[in-house]
């Protein structure tokens, strides 16, 4: 009981730290937006609002690109995957070693030059002017709006989920969410707390993006990028030190002890059970994440109950409750230690009983011949017998991060905004160091988390904030958790604001100004830009109130789909003088169709949003191959481009 | 002193009559200098045809750099995945004798961390010794911006 009390107290302290960090952070964001809005005066509005007047310096350019690429997935999804599958995530993320130079170096200089020659502000602008094709501009705008809208809804949900995780321990937050009128709560399928967080997150992003435009997005990205790297660099030594102390194997020290402890780990068993109150005299609350020891002596088992259950005299049992059994002896010892110290939430041993257990081993990693699955490939996997990362998937991820990242329009538009080639060179170097300081250290930190906090498989998305609280409280600096927890929030915010601006630029510049009213006055364009940015944001906010299923899959689908559509078309446009509008439109649409068709096959096979993978190959590879090949063939089968157009973009004019 | 950098003529042009224009080709490497190429840089031995135009420096340098960078990605792929697969996949291990380097599984150290360091060194080389500085041009909106800033400055002074 004392332990539970201490834990709640600690949660309250960290909650206050998070709240203060969040408030300070939001003040910083709005100050930046205000300053950015001042830059809009005396400058070409569209160029400044959507492209920062092509004047980004090293830090702004490097960190906005790095922060935009690191969405909430980097700080929530990635840590949870490391925790769940172990060291094999090092290979999963391995291609990040060349991501900065690929994403910025392959297209950067050339797309910047072509954008200046065409006086283009958006990617559809570049393609339309490069080929003097209105149709190409409209096709690319349609694809951007299609993919970005889905992605934005998913990112909004991600942002509010993170905020809910951060603010969850704060009483004022939970009570104000609970006090919302029923009719407001009924608008959202995810509960009142989610709705409050969605509105807070959404309104904040929409307001600062709308008001400040590109420069606000860029400079908040810089701030967010700094928060991310500082958070990781603080966590790394703390994680190695504390997990090393816990591991205490016979051999080695620090991280080596952690790895050797992981080598002995066996994946937990997941299943269902019936929970019954021992006493029916009073109502019993079984908090989510409660631990229970079942049996005695050698046959004693340790189970974790995932969700909260309210057991009453009239309903003393809960059937089909999700439970996880911890089977690694060292993990059981660590859980016992944490329960005694009050670091774990609650122990319901003796308060409830467990019966009708139906538990299953992981499909890969639980058998004796698969021992050490957390430190070897392909890594433990609950559903698939060939493990988490079979070699075909490892190859796909090498394409996914480096090549797919190169094909993202949100990255391309940033490549149009740097000032000069000196800025580009220095920025590539800066981002390379930045990613090196973030991604592999994250693998180390959350491998350490396996040793420090066993049993988080039941709620892996909470591992990042939980780890931050754990590490800082263990050194008596709970307030520091606020800074560390701000990192994932910053990551998702920096992605959302960029995508929001891409949608509004596509509608204002590419649809309205270029096709409907080319003579529109700047005042009208300005008003329209503000309105469209706000409407797009509010639309995504309302969409996220009742988000569709498979959100993480939607994010993967949109990211890889954009690359399948845009990479080949842009590469041909920039580097192949013979390329023409027909060939590039064919490249774009065939990439879209090939990629989409694999998702549709997967859907009709009953796999939901999980795509069909021929020979284990990811749809991104198939989409890219189709796009490059068909684009090449169609180009050669159609007339060459006009001479003056080739001269304009490929030859010196005197 | 600027180096002399021959550039290739256009290979596929639609001529006014719609026919494809093929110019005799030769090897035209991009120059290693960071300077801009002027008309006086064209080699006297360049093909003397009315249609022989110079590719932009940015195009030539970017294409060369993109090929090298793509090659680096391919090398990383060819090293990392096979190395990790051969040394780290499907092995039965003994936790006590399992091979680690600096606490990291050795297969991951050799397959990812070492090449990651090599990739950072390669990136450093590309950024500071290989990639050329080129003039990217000036967009109309930038000229407007410069003029507006100048006007604002003058207004402030006045």
Break the fold down into its secondary structure elements and pairings.
The complex is a heterodimer of chains A (654) and B (158).
Chain A: H1 2-39, H2 45-51, H3 58-69, H4 72-85, H5 89-92, H6 99-105, H7 108-118, H8 123-131, H9 134-167, H10 171-178, H11 182-185, H12 192-247, H13 255-263, E1 269-277, E2 284-286, E3 290-294, E4 301-305, E5 309-311, E6 317-326, H14 329-341, E7 352-360, H15 391-406, H16 409-415, H17 421-452, H18 463-474, H19 481-516, H20 522-545, H21 551-575, H22 581-604, H23 619-637, H24 643-650
Antiparallel strand pairs in A: 1-6, 1-7, 2-5, 3-4, 4-6
Helix pairs in contact in A: 1-12, 1-19, 2-12, 3-12, 3-16, 3-17, 3-19, 4-17, 4-19, 6-15, 6-17, 7-8, 8-9, 9-12, 9-19, 9-20, 9-21, 10-12, 12-13, 12-17, 12-18, 12-19, 12-20, 13-17, 15-21, 18-19, 19-20, 21-22, 21-23, 22-23
Chain B: E1 13-14, E2 20-21, H1 57-88, E3 100-101, E4 104-105, H2 106-130, H3 140-157
């Amino acid at each position: 009981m004392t332990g539970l009390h201490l834990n709640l107290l600690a949660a309250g302290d960290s909650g206050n730290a998070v709240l203060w960090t969040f408030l300070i952070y939001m003040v910083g964001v709005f100050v930046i937006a205000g300053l950015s809005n001042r830059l809009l005066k005396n400058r070409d509005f569209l160029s400044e609002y959507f492209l920062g007047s092509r004047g980004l310096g090293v830090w702004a350019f490097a960190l906005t690109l790095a922060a935009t690429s690191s969405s909430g997935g980097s700080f929530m999804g990635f840590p949870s995957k490391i925790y769940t599958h172990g060291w094999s995530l090092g290979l999963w993320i391995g291609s990040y070693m060349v991501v900065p130079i690929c994403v910025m170096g392959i297209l950067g200089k050339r797309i910047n030059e072509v954008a200046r020659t065409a006086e283009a502000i958006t990617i559809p602008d570049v393609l339309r002017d490069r080929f003097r094709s209105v149709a190409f501009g409209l096709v690319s705008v349609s694809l951007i709006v299609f993919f970005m809208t889905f992605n934005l809804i998913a990112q909004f949900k991600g942002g509010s989920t993170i905020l809910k995780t951060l603010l969850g321990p704060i009483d004022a937050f939970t009570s104000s969410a609970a006090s919302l009128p029923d009719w407001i709560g009924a608008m959202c399928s995810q509960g009142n707390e989610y709705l409050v967080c969605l509105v807070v997150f959404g309104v904040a992003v929409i307001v600062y993006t709308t008001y400040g435009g590109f420069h606000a997005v860029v400079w908040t990205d810089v701030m967010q990028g700094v928060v991310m790297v500082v958070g990781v660099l603080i966590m790394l030594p703390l994680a190695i030190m504390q997990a090393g102390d816990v591991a205490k194997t016979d051999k080695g020290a620090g991280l080596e002890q952690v790895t050797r402890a992981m080598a002995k780990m066996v994946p937990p068993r997941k299943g269902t059970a019936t929970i019954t109150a021992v006493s029916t005299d009073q109502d019993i609350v079984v908090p989510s994440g409660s631990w229970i020891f079942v049996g005695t002596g050698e046959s004693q088992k340790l189970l974790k109950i995932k969700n909260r259950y309210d057991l009453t005299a009239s309903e003393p049992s809960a059937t089909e409750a999700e439970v996880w059994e911890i089977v690694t002896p060292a993990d059981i010892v660590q859980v016992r230690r944490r329960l005694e110290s009050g670091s774990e939430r609650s122990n319901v041993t003796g308060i409830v009983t467990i019966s009708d257990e139906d538990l299953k081993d992981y499909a890969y990693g639980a058998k004796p011949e698969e021992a050490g699955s957390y430190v070897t490939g392909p890594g433990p996997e609950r559903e698939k017998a060939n493990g988490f990362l079979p070699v075909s998937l490892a190859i796909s991820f090498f394409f996914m991060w480096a090549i797919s990242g190169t094909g993202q329009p949100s990255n391309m538009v940033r490549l149009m905004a740097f000032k000069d080639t000196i800025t580009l060179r220095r920025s590539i170097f800066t981002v390379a160091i930045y990613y090196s300081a973030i991604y592999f250290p994250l693998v180390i930190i959350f491998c350490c988390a396996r040793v420090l906090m066993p049993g988080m498989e039941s709620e892996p998305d909470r591992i990042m904030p939980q780890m931050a609280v754990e590490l800082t409280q263990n050194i008596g600096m709970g307030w520091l958790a606020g800074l560390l927890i701000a990192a994932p929030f910053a990551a998702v915010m920096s992605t959302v604001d960029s995508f929001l601006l891409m949608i509004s630029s596509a509608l204002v510049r590419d649809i309205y100004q270029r096709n409907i009213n080319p003579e529109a006055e700047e005042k009208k364009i300005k008003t329209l830009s503000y309105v469209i940015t706000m409407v797009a944001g509010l639309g995504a906010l309302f969409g996220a109130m009742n988000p569709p299923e498979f959100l993480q899959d939607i994010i993967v689908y949109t990211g890889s789909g954009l690359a399948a559509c845009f990479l080949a078309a842009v590469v041909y446009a920039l580097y192949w003088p013979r390329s023409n509008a027909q060939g590039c439109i064919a490249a774009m649409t065939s990439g879209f169709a090939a990629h989409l068709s694999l998702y549709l096959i997967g859907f009709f096979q009953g796999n939901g949003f999980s795509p069909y993978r021929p020979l284990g190959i990811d749809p991104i590879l198939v989409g890219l191959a189709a796009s490059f090949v068909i684009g090449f063939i169609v180009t050669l089968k159609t007339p060459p481009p006009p001479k003056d157009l080739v001269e304009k973009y490929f030859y010196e004019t005197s | 002193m600027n180096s002399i950098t021959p550039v290739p003529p256009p290979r596929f042009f639609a001529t006014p009559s719609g026919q494809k224009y093929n110019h005799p080709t030769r090897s035209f490497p991009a120059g290693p200098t960071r300077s801009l190429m002027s008309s006086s840089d064209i080699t006297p031995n360049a093909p003397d045809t009315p249609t022989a135009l110079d590719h932009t420096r940015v195009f030539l340098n970017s294409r060369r750099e993109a090929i090298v960078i793509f090659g680096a990605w391919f090398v990383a792929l060819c090293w990392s995945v096979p190395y990790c697969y051969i040394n780290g996949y499907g092995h039965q291990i003994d936790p006590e004798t399992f091979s680690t380097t600096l606490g990291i599984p050795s297969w991951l150290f050799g397959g990812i961390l070492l090449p990651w360091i090599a990739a950072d060194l390669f990136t450093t080389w590309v950024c500071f010794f290989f990639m050329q500085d080129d003039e990217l041009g000036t967009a109309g909106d930038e000229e407007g911006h410069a003029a507006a800033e100048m006007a604002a400055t003058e207004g402030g002074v006045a």
